[in-house]
């Protein structure tokens, strides 16, 4: 079965600074990979996804993520954070050839200082 | 499309009462999921349906929880009797099965349940 780890429970950055949120997965083959964002009081919204092809994927709101097979990672990045990016971020992994249902990490809470 | 619609958004009830949460998935999505989110346990998959049929309910915590999907546009999650430890945010999500096989979920805004 697949699993996903988000090592950082909280990340604090200053507005305008760059951001990287870590995600590591465990799966025997190339998985499907996702990042979702949850704003306060809202449901989760898909930021971006990786299925195949180019390992650097672009998402909404200026986010990108890079799939690194050798490191079993799918880290989320943004070059300049805005105060409105403060939210909870979830990495998820889905198995090819299995149930395809994504498994979610515990989430990373992003705090943005003015 | 209006997205995934959940009701009620907030529910406060007393221990022992029955609670029913409702979900309307996106039209054309053939998968429906129920999740529970708490600070302690994070996001937990309770049950999911494919074409209105329950596929995996191994995440349902106990017999007090039940879920139904009588048609493609409606699902319910029922807790009877409710207990304080059921207090959580319950999310419904729906998904099409994409050509690649992956499930890309669209979530509702959630139902926040407080059991006193």
Walk me through what this model shows.
The complex is a heterodimer of chains A (114) and B (116). By secondary structure, chain A is mostly beta strands. Chain A is built from no helices and twelve strands. Chain A has strands at 3-5, 10-14, 19-21, 24-26, 32-38, 44-50, 56-58, 64-68, 73-78, 87-94, 103-104, 108-113. In chain A, strands 2, 5, 6, 10, 11 and 12 form a six-stranded mixed sheet that branches. A four-stranded antiparallel sheet of chain A has the order 3-9-8-7, with no helix packed on it. Chain A is globular and about 45 Å long. The model of chain A has no long low-confidence stretch (mean pLDDT 92). Chain B is mostly beta strands and 116 residues long. In chain B, strands 2, 4, 5, 6, 9, 10 and 11 form a seven-stranded mixed sheet that branches. Chain B has a four-stranded antiparallel sheet with strand order 1-3-8-7, with no helix packed on it. Chain B is globular and about 45 Å long. The termini of chain B are far apart. At the A-B interface, strand 5 and strand 6 of A face strand 5 and strand 10 of B.
- Give the termini separation of chain A: 41 Å
The helix/strand class of chain A is mainly beta
Q: Residue ranges of chain A: pLDDT <50 for 5 or more in a row?
A: none
Helix content of chain A: under 10%
Instruction: Please provide the count of β strands of chain B.
Output: 11
Largest interface: A-B, 24 and 22 residues
- Overall average pLDDT of chain A: 92
Outline type of chain B: globular
Q: Could you give the topology of this structure?
A:
The complex is a heterodimer of chains A (114) and B (116).
Chain A lengths: L2 E3 L4 E5 L4 E3 L2 E3 L5 E7 L5 E7 L5 E3 L5 E5 L4 E6 L8 E8 L8 E2 L3 E6 L1
Parallel strand pairs in A: 2-12
Antiparallel strand pairs in A: 1-4, 3-9, 5-6, 5-10, 7-8, 8-9, 10-11, 10-12
Chain B lengths: L4 E3 L2 E4 L5 E6 L6 E8 L3 E9 L2 E4 L8 E7 L2 E6 L8 E8 L10 E2 L3 E5 L1
Parallel strand pairs in B: 2-11
Antiparallel strand pairs in B: 1-3, 3-8, 4-5, 4-9, 5-6, 7-8, 9-10, 9-11
């Amino acid at each position: 079965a697949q699993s996903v780890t988000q090592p950082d429970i909280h990340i604090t950055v200053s507005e305008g600074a760059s951001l990287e949120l870590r995600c590591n997965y465990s799966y025997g083959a190339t998985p499907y990979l996702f990042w979702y964002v949850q704003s306060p009081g809202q449901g989760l919204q898909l930021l971006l996804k990786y299925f195949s092809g180019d390992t650097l994927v672009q998402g909404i709101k200026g986010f990108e993520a890079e799939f690194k097979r050798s490191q079993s990672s799918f880290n989320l990045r943004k070059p300049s954070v805005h105060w409105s990016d403060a939210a909870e971020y979830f990495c998820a992994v889905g198995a090819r050839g299995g149930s395809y249902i994504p498994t979610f990490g515990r989430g990373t809470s992003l705090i943005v200082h003015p | 499309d209006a997205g995934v619609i959940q009701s009620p958004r907030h529910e406060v009830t007393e221990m022992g009462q029955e609670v029913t949460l409702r979900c309307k998935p996106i039209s054309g999505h053939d998968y429906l999921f129920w999740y529970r989110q708490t600070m302690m346990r994070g996001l937990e998959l309770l049950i999911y349906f494919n074409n209105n049929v329950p596929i995996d309910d191994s995440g349902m915590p106990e017999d007090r929880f039940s879920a139904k999907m009588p048609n493609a546009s409606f699902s319910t999650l029922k807790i009877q009797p409710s207990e304080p430890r059921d207090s959580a945010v319950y999310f419904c999500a729906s998904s099409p099965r994409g050509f690649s096989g992956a499930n890309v979920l669209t979530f509702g805004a959630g139902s926040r349940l407080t059991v006193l």
